[in-house]
Design brief:
heterodimer; A: 252 residues; six-stranded mixed beta sheet; 24% strand; B: 54% helix; 20% strand; elongated; binds adenosine-5'-triphosphate; binds magnesium ion
Chain lengths: 252, 408
């Protein structure tokens, strides 16, 4: 069974008398271990979709099953626990807690569920090594570069061993070189540790690395590589040459 | 919990200027309340000491009904100067002295002028034990200083001036005896007493007990007893215990009932102090509410992040409450510290002199910070801060994660 099953997900916002529909019947399945990119132009509904998948927001229609659990009308605390146990979040603005050190930021999701001690310390240190932050554990977020901050966020998303990591435009605030490094890092984590990633972007270069691209337009999924390629082409303003396979490892 | 507290402390330290202002406001409120309270407490200590150790005594024992006709100094409601039950009183834990007294009224004259007086016959030795501060109010000698002089009396200073009764002068005291006949005896003025209350200074005359008994023809009889105790806080408890032991024929009264105007002043002052303190604290607490609200607004995205990571609503509330408590503890600590410092400095310098309302005497007021002052101030500061932080904390916890995350 798929890790994620979305059927006919709808989401509309009421703004006074007008109703804005952000998602109009999204069907999507994601298997464990996949590395999926959600692409689409601005306002197409990427963030809305990821928020619903992340149990941060409730759909106004459709059904959603995560890891065999139907996410229906659960209360806030249930959803908080589901997020804490099953989902890791990586944000566009990093969203680190400024008064906490790198170590404390990384361990935060575990601390709130009462974990602590030597075992946690070791786990944090191992993850810090994976994301290349071993020397920065005692630093505060404002002493780090953007790329380093996003590495902290990645480590924080992974520390609980989540089934799914959601990243909403994680590279939008990074320069292209750093973006590539962050994407490489996530790809490596997907390949080596089997972490399931679902992330949104409108950066066409990500296509180069994606194993699976889901295109979203105006609140509906337009599947297939053709649509994705068209997306990329349009956004890039270039020909299809861009779609040539590219080996990320070569660059290192 | 400890980690959350640490997080709260760090968040307080994060916006230093604002936290410093809020902490100062709390500290100022606490400090003002405590300093004002310390001086009032010091004044009350002096006033109560004067009452308990210099004037009224801690406890008085009379025959039942005596105090109903108080002011008349009725001689028929008398007691034996010695009786087995007095031993019980002396042996009661907390009791340090029992002094017999006899009260009477009459007219006294220097030959050309006369005045009404209220006489108090005292046992020189026992009275000094029961009212150790009495002598402080007397210029010259007190009754019994000179064992040879069995007719030595102390008069109120204003009466002394009115009757030209300098020390050494002789006055004649008239009084009606217990059986109603008039009697008169001469006495020598040895001291002038300047007490806190005008009545004492105009009317009171202290005479040796034996001399008074002779004047009144009441050998071996007294009006009542003054009882001194070792701890002022235990007066009521000891009085109640004595009343139970001595039974209904005797009336045991603590100073609060005997000098009810003093007790009233003490109570009213504490109520006013409470009101003033409440105003200071409310101002400080509004500052806390404002600071907390700003914190919540500024950190909306952070709250959204925490929620995304799985923090429950209750924990968000707790975090902000802890932040408010941290402000209160810092502010309260500084306020208490500075108040203690000031009290110590002023105390070391001998206090300030002042006179409580309704009295003419000057006391040295040593600022005091008793538990009845500190405990409610601390408790109200903490509770008030909790209440002030409560609404912002609740607001933070009700944020919807998606919207909180979208905040800038
Ligand atoms: N809270 C909201 N209230 C009203 N409308 C909203 C709200 N959030 C999103 N929308 C609308 O829903 C649609 C989808 O928005 P969404 O943020 O999901 O798009 P997006 O693909 O993430 O865009 P971008 O690439 O710019 O981040 C937009 O039309 C947006 O205006
Ligand atoms: Mg978006």
């Amino acid at each position: 069974m798929a890790l994620l099953q979305l059927r006919g997900i709808e989401k509309s916002y009421e703004l006074g008398k007008t109703v804005v529909t952000a998602l109009r019947g999204v069907d999507l399945e994601v298997e464990a271990g996949e590395f999926t990119v959600v692409m689409g132009p601005s306002g197409s509904g990427k963030t809305t979709l990821l928020n619903i998948i992340g149990c941060l927001d409730r759909p106004t229609g459709g059904s959603y099953v995560l890891d065999g659990e139907a996410i229906g009308d659960r209360d806030f605390n249930d959803l908080a626990d589901i997020r804490n146990r099953k989902i890791g979040f990586i944000f566009q603005n990093f969203n680190l807690i400024p008064v906490l050190s790198v170590r404390e930021n990384i361990e935060f999701p575990c601390v709130i569920r009462g974990e602590g001690g030597a075992e946690l310390n070791q786990r944090v240190e191992a993850i810090a090594r994976d994301v290349g932050l071993t020397d920065f554990l005692h630093h505060k977020p404002d002493e780090l570069s953007g790329g380093q901050r996003q590495r902290v966020a990645i480590a924080r998303a992974l520390v609980t061993g989540p089934q799914l990591v959601l990243a909403d435009e994680p590279t939008a605030n990074l320069d292209s070189k750093t973006s590539d490094q962050i994407i490489d890092l996530m790809l490596a984590l997907n390949r080596d540790k089997g972490v399931t990633f679902l992330f949104s972007t409108h950066d066409p270069r990500v296509m180069e690395h994606a194993r699976r691209v889901v295109s979203i337009h105006d609140g509906v999924i337009v599947d297939g590589t053709a649509a994705a390629a068209a997306d990329v082409a349009r956004m890039h303003g270039a020909g299809t040459s861009f779609l040539l396979p590219y080996d990320a490892a070569e660059r290192r | 919990m400890f980690r959350y507290l640490r997080l709260a402390v760090r968040n307080v330290l994060r916006s230093r200027a604002r936290s410093a202002l809020t902490i100062s406001a709390i500290a100022f409120g606490v400090w003002m309340t405590l300093v004002l309270g310390a001086f009032i407490a010091g004044m009350q200590n002096a006033m109560i000491d004067d009452t308990v150790k210099g004037r009224v005594g801690a406890i008085q024992i009379h025959r039942k009904g005596y105090d109903d006709v108080l002011g008349d100094q009725p001689l028929d409601l008398d007691l034996p100067q010695d009786a087995p039950w007095l031993d019980k009183v002396r042996k009661t834990p907390g009791v340090v002295a029992v002094a017999p007294r006899i009260s009477f009224t009459g007219i006294l004259t220097n030959g050309s002028q006369s005045a009404n007086y209220v006489g108090v016959g005292v046992d020189p030795k026992l009275d000094q034990l029961a009212l150790p501060l009495f002598a402080q109010s007397v210029k010259g000698h007190i009754v019994g200083d000179d064992p040879e002089q069995s007719a030595a009396i102390v008069v109120g200073d204003e009466m002394g001036v009115a009757l030209h009764a300098e020390p050494g002068a002789t006055l004649t005291l008239q009084a009606a005896t217990a059986s109603g006949q008039q009697n008169a005896m001469d006495a020598v003025v040895v001291g002038a007493r300047s007490a806190g209350t005008p009545f004492d200074n105009k009317r009171l005359v202290f005479v040796p007990l034996a001399w008074a008994q002779e004047l009144l023809n009441m050998e071996g009889r007294v009006s009542g007893f003054v009882v001194a105790v070792d701890d002022r806080e235990k007066v009521r408890a000891i009085a109640e215990q004595l009343q139970r032991e001595l039974g209904p024929e005797l009336k045991v009264e603590p100073w609060q009932d005997l000098a009810s105007q003093v007790a009233d002043v003490v109570r009213v002052q504490r109520i006013i102090l409470g009101g003033i303190g409440a105003v200071f604290l409310i101002i400080a607490i509004i500052g806390v509410a404002n600071t907390m609200l700003m914190s919540v607004l500024e950190r909306t995205r952070e709250i959204g992040t925490m929620m995304a990571l799985g923090v429950r609503r209750r924990t968000i509330t707790l975090l902000f409450l802890l932040e408010g408590m941290t402000l209160a503890l810092f502010g309260g600590g500084v306020g208490i510290g500075l108040a203690v410092l000031l009290a110590k400095v002023v105390g070391a310098a001998g206090g300030v002199s002042g006179s409580p309302p309704g009295t003419v005497a000057k006391y040295a007021i040593i600022p005091d910070l008793p538990l009845w002052l500190i405990a409610p101030t601390v408790a109200l500061t903490l509770l008030g801060t909790l209440a002030a932080a409560g609404w912002p904390a609740w607001r933070a916890s009700r944020l919807r994660p998606v919207e909180a995350l979208r905040a800038t």
